[in-house]
Amino acid sequence: MGSNSSSGADTSETHPRQTDRGTLVLSDDSGYVGETLTFHGRNLPADKQFDIEWHTVDGSWGVLEAHEIVGPQFRPRTETITMVTTDAEGRFDYEWTIPEEYGSVHTVSLTTQDGATVDQAEFEITPWFELDQASATLGDTFVVTGYGLGPGIMVNNYQIAWDNTTVGFLTSVQNRGTATAEVRAVGPPGEHILQVWRGYRGMPFLQNNTQSPYGKVADGRKTAWTVEVTEPETEPQTAWVDPMPEEQPLSTHYPELDEATEAELSITPEYGQSGTDVTITGTGFEPHTEVDLIWHHHAGHEPQGPDKPPLPTVTAEPWPDALPTVATDANGQFAVDVTVPKDIGSTRPITARVDGRNVAVTGFMMQPSIETFSPTSGPVGTEIEIELTGVGWTQYAMAPLFVYDNGPLGYACGLSDKEEGTTIRTILQASGQPGWHFIDAYPTIFRMQEDNPEFELNAHLSYLDNHPMRPVPAFHFAFEITE
Asked: Are β-strands 475-481 and 239-241 bridged in parallel, bridged antiparallel, or unpaired?
């Protein structure tokens, strides 16, 4: 079967016609991830083996050219839960712990060893949420984990609110229905309310738990918590970026070579922030030949509005002076140490140019960093300058959304031409009562081809385990309001 879009995923499949008689009965019609479900087989042939099959989906983000987000995509998946053997009376009972899995209705099939379906039943997984702790120090985080989310558009977009202000959303397009979000513990110290809502338009539907045709958010399980924020014993860190994993550049974003040769380029390390010291190595070149190393910057602008052309106008443009010219040795090799220049994020192609023609290519995965956060304290109205580099240019990485004390403020854009700068720069106004206040810049989906659900310009709180294509970090800042 073909892929299903995010408008809803059908977890059923076409099965062979029933042959053997018998009945499959489930102990419950619905339940939660982590609960026990019992399968009862009755009126079956005695002393015979059968398979219990679970019909569900696999989910992923559809991304074109490792850049343009199509939307959530789901395709059917069938797993054999177990093989059972009936007793002398043609019966069996089997207990199963519901694994981390997408929500909605799933078909369970009882099949013979040759694949014929004997009977089927349906079981619905209900989403639920847990909070890791009831108390956190100011500036630390509460972790919300959702289980059994999605895949349909009405049940895969949940919003987290702090003191009745929507911080952002979490979704479980990936990871089989499980999503994780970190929510900042912001002041003043004391009791606060953290709540999970549901709304496919990207905004909480306030009748979730009273008049929704889709039932309560977690069918009665807890979705709102009174939490305590405590005074810190030490001053918080003032600016940091989430840790980034090891990555490789995406060859999809390399420019085409002018000529195919035996020449090869490599770079060590392959990832890091601007200012990273790297070694570029070349092999397979002609001996005693000059090679121009060319750094590439993705330049241009995304088409906007209803009349936008079908393809983006972003291209990899050379920066001729960013890297040196080198000479190969008698074996046609070279190795040169360079410092990664400041630039926008994602894959930075590097080509080797000989006699004006690009003959080899490699790349560096540029990861984000904080260039400026100043000042770190001051009275209400203080202008706070924030400058980021290594952001963009791909749609899933280009537009961090800033929240101030868990309240959404606005977004910034990391796609720019060299003449306009290679960093995001913004100035925010310090506000609030005396004490520590927190600014977080979360990844967004920014734009998606599919209209629903509306994931786009909201803080993607489940970026930790459900962001498209590659890991994208959040930026975090702490500012002290003085008297």
From this structure: antiparallel
Query: What is the tens place of the pLDDT at every residue in 146-167?
Result: 999 989 888 889 999 999 999 9
Compute the distance between CA of residue 26 and CA of residue 95 in angstroms, rounded to an integer: 10
Q: Which fold has domain 4-125?
A: Immunoglobulin-like (2.60.40)
- pLDDT tens-digit profile of 420-474? 568 899 999 999 999 999 999 999 998 888 877 788 889 999 999 999 999 999 9
What Rg value do the Cα atoms of the chain yield, rounded? 27
Q: Which CATH fold topology does 128-243+368-481 show?
A: Immunoglobulin-like (2.60.40)
Stated pTM of the model: 0.90
Backbone angle region of 346, left / alpha / beta, with phi > 0 → left and psi within -120 to 50 → alpha: left
Q: Given CATH 3.30.1330.10, say whether it is the number of domain 251-366.
A: no
Higher-pLDDT residue of 302 and 315 is 315
Cα distance between residue 74 and residue 20, in whole Å: 32
CA angle 152, 154, 158 (to 5 degrees): 110
* All CATH 2.60.40.230 domain ranges in the chain, comma separated: 251-366
Name 265's bridge partners. 282
Residue 128 identity: W
